[in-house]
Amino acid sequence: MSLQYIIDAYNLTNHPRFKAAKSAVNIQQSLADFIRINKLNGSKNNRVILVFDGYPPSGQNTPEGDGLVCMFSRRIEADELIKKIVEESACPRNIIVVSDDKQVQLTSRLLHARVRGVEEFICGKKNNKFVSTTSLNSAESRLTYSAMQKINAELKKLWLD
């Protein structure tokens, strides 16, 4: 089963890990290279659609090929184009929408697509700040008795006094 990534390009270009390449003349090519070099789409069978606001820049070639396509929203917002692509898909469950925009995430979920934030897309799940239940049970994350007493004392001050 191959996946299709639909990426809100504005969110990705404004991510701190991409900022270094942002000074490039052709931002679309830089973004495509960033995705290819870091193998962010996983398998080479997975497709990537970079969705940009507005019109394509005149005089510049937009990167295409190797399962990557750049799309421009033209007269509508990129968020609307992303929604339209997911709505028209025959199998939205194979789509992963990459965006930090809460409305895009909500709409994509309602249309049965998967959603990832930009940080998760770039760094993977292991580098996110979410704490799993298994890590809560590890020895290094346990509080000492004295630390628990200090926390309880502060909570008593806040809530009971």
Write the layout of secondary structure elements.
Elements (H helix, E strand, L loop, with lengths): L3 E5 H5 L13 H11 L9 E6 L15 E5 L5 H10 L7 E4 L3 H9 L3 E3 L1 H6 L9 H4 L8 H15 L2
Parallel strand pairs: 1-2, 1-4, 2-3, 4-5
Helix pairs in contact: 3-4
Instruction: Please bin the fraction of helical residues.
Output: 25-40%
In CATH, the topology is named Rossmann fold
Number of helices: 7
Please, how many domains?
1
- Tell me which CATH architecture applies here: 3-Layer(aba) Sandwich
Structural class: alpha/beta
Low-confidence stretches: 127-141
The number of distinct β-strands equals 5
| CATH C-level class | Alpha Beta
What sort of overall outline do the alpha carbons produce when their principal axes are compared? elongated
Elements, N to C (H/E): EHHEEHEHEHHH
Overall average residue pLDDT:
82
The spatial strand order of the largest sheet comes to 3-2-1-4-5
Q: How many angstroms does the end-to-end distance come to?
A: 59 Å
Cα Rg: 21 Å
Beta fraction: 5-15%
Major pleated sheet: 5 strands, parallel
Tags for this model:
161 residues; alpha/beta; Rossmann fold; 5 strands; elongated
Q: What does this 3D model show about the protein?
A:
This protein is α/β, with parallel strands linked by helices and 161 residues long. It has helices at residues 9-13, 27-37, 78-87, 102-110, 118-123, 133-136, 145-159, and strands at 4-8, 47-52, 68-72, 95-98, 114-116. It has a single domain (4-129), classed as Rossmann fold (3-Layer(aba) Sandwich). The chain has a five-stranded parallel β-sheet with strand order 3-2-1-4-5. It is elongated. Residues 127-141 have low confidence and may be disordered.
